[in-house]
Automatic annotation (TrEMBL):
Start and end residues of each stretch annotated as Disordered: 353-388
Ranges of residues in domain NlpC/P60: 239-360
Name of this chain's protein: NlpC/P60 family protein
Domain of life according to the entry: Bacteria
Keywords carried by this UniProt record: Coiled coil, Hydrolase, Protease, Signal, Thiol protease
SUPFAM superfamilies in UniProt: Cysteine proteinases (SSF54001)
Coiled-coil annotated spans: 39-73, 170-197
Gene3D superfamilies hit by this protein: 6.10.250.3150, endopeptidase domain like (from Nostoc punctiforme) (3.90.1720.10)
UniProt cross-references to InterPro entries, sorted A to Z: NLP_P60_dom, Papain-like_cys_pep_sf, PG_Endopeptidase_C40
Signal sequence bounds: 1-27
Family: Belongs to the peptidase C40 family.
């Protein structure tokens, strides 16, 4: 069934307008039997289910990132604890030797103590200095032992706390994973319940609605100065790293979307943007929310290729700006990385990972592979449901 599935439009308003003004050939019939619903309602429900699933996916990604960092912290603390315990063991050994010397009546260092009996005053002074150094060493050894034990105790408590946090994060990750799987199962069940005619109407409504949304967005002048006319080279070139990030994203076109994935065989939306900029030598946050929160905001009028376009009120989807009002994105489960209209989803804004970088002087837009825009933002049926 996956070959017939709908393509999701990001703006309900445009779809609603389309459905109410559709030509007779595209008119949606009224429900004629029990259990049948208007295509507009079905599209709204699917849109909401996909949005919730993507929001949960980004929650999963954020938890997975924290868990990765926490595991590294546990490893670091355990290493420090092992070194501290080794130091305590060595200090205890030194303290034990001093105790044995004291017990055996060798409170001074034997060869030098005997020299104190010499009648030469200078010798006595020199040896007194040696004895003072030995006493200081003993005091320092005891101090190291006490300090080392305190350090080891602190590190042990920290390691236990870090491990508890790791366990809690692992549980949260599993909960987030189960939430995503449950929400995507709802999508699958809803799609499986639709007739061939309903699926065709949904696909047609989505395609027309997306086109209408794109026309309206471009006509608004929101991208004025950011790109030339359709089919022309962008008037604002990218930075060198932006060009490299875009080149990486273009080479991923055709690879499948998989929630929680960050390459190299498959990606989710923020996994693609993060890895694209990592390939350009710039580390950015893992999730779309953190990319939106931490990277420099940039006006849509100043967009340049390689910038990140963020969608939905909670910043739960992200794509790379290609130029000419188009983006490269990993749309949603059951899709492949592709080129889409920038208005395919409700825009929140844009961010730039390298705001201080100068634009390139001689920019040549990347050559897109054949079929880069084909496939739409389709969902999946039973055969395309995620297994992880």
């Amino acid at each position: 069934m996956s070959g017939r599935l709908l393509r999701w439009v990001g703006t309900g308003a445009a779809v609603g307008a389309l459905l109410t003004t559709a030509s007779p050939a595209y008119a949606v019939p009224e429900p004629s039997g029990p259990g049948e619903r208007p295509v507009s309602e079905l599209l709204t429900d699917l849109q909401e289910l996909y949005r919730k699933a993507e929001e949960s996916t980004e929650t999963y990604n954020a938890t997975a990132e924290k868990l990765k960092e926490q595991r590294a912290e546990v490893t670091r603390l355990n290493g420090s604890l092992a070194r501290a315990r080794t130091s305590v063991r060595d200090s205890r050994g030194a303290a034990g030797r001093f105790a044995r010397q004291q017990y055996q009546g060798r409170t001074n260092i034997s060869p030098y103590v005997h020299l104190l009996l010499a009648r030469n005053p200078q010798q006595a002074l020199d040896q007194g200095h040696v004895i003072g150094r030995v006493a200081a060493e003993r005091a320092a050894t005891v101090q190291r032992l006490v300090g080392g034990e305190k350090t080891a105790a602190t590190l042990a408590a920290g390691a236990r706390s870090a491990l508890e946090t790791q366990v809690a994060l692992a549980a949260r990750q599993k909960e987030a994973r189960d939430t995503v799987k449950g929400q995507l199962k709802e999508v699958e069940e809803l799609l499986a319940s639709l007739s061939t005619e309903q699926l065709a109407e949904l696909a047609r409504a989505e395609e027309e609605g997306m086109a209408a949304a794109q026309r309206k967005f471009l006509a608004s002048g929101a991208l004025s100065g950011a790109a030339g006319s359709a089919g022309s080279a962008p008037s604002r070139p990218p930075s060198r790293r932006g060009d490299e990030a875009l080149d990486y994203a273009v080479r991923q076109i055709g690879k499948p979307y998989k929630w929680g994935a960050e390459g190299p065989a498959s990606f989710d939306c923020s996994g693609l943007t993060q890895q694209a900029w990592a390939a350009a030598g710039k580390e950015i946050p893992r999730t779309s929310q953190e990319q939106w929160a931490q990277l420099r905001r940039v006006s849509l009028r100043k967009l340049r290729p390689g910038d990140l376009v963020v969608y939905f009120p909670k910043a739960t989807h992200v794509a790379l700006y290609l130029g000419d009002g188009m983006v490269i994105q990993a749309p949603r489960p059951g899709t492949r990385i592709k080129v889409s209209p920038i208005a395919a989803n409700p825009l929140l804004g844009a961010v730039r990972p390298d705001p201080k970088a100068d634009p390139m002087k001689n920019y040549v837009p990347p050559k897109l592979p054949r079929g880069a825009m084909k496939g739409g933002d389709k969902g999946y049926g039973r055969a395309g449901a995620p297994r992880a």
